[in-house]
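Hey, I was hoping to borrow your eyes for a little while. I've dropped the whole record in just underneath, so have a look:

——
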Amino acid sequence: MRLSAGHVSFAAAMIWLGVMGLSKGDFVQVWQPVPRWVPAREALAYLCAFISLASGIGLLWQRTAAVAARVLFASLLVWLLALRLPNLFFQTPVVLVAWTFGSTAVMVAAAWVLYVWFAGDRDRQRLGFATGDTGLRIARALYGLALIPFGIAHFTYIERTTSMVPGWLPWHLAWAYFFGCTFIAAGVAVLIGVYARLAATLSVLQLGMFTLLVWVPVVVAGPSASDWSEFVVSWVLTAAAWVVADSYRGMPWLAVGRRAHSTEVGPWTSH
């Protein structure tokens, strides 16, 4: 048996988040912002790091993958609902808040896909809506919804986006607008189930290109603490998106509607 590349990459990202959190004794960038009113912030930071590390390791072993996916999905969902969702209504600027909601939602979607794949009989009996086709559809829809603020942010923060286009590429402004549009288009396609596999796969390619072309050179050149954190966030989002895209394997690239939904393909594949 071998693991899918997206599954391994996401597990490795979770392990790295855990290592970073435990070494810093604070929330890493992917969990920020965390309001000051949150009780026991230091203990919660260590808990997030431990869950990330333990879940990431557990996802790599078939015997522990079900428990790891369940714990990771539950913890990320709580984070999304308790800390990210309320900010959409009470915090500004809206686009930046929506981006942080979207980044957490991408991770939730990936963990949910893994939970659907690994859920045992007990999970399927007690939480059938979350572990069957319905759960997979919700996870994919959540991923599609998360991509839209990524695209909108390209336009809202166009100067920042343009400055991050590698210097050797021409037409910086055009690339910024193009990728903003493609994020939104991919999100809508996944949401409505039209060419969803193609859209999900291209969104992974786009996130991966951003990680490779923007942040890898920064890391190689000697990053600051903030640069390193941004690289890790980009890696986590790429890996999480990869897991969601993997959930469409076996589906036609140009599938529409119900043909785009299946739980038959999991992360454990035979040689």
Observations:
- The longest helix spans residues 196-221.
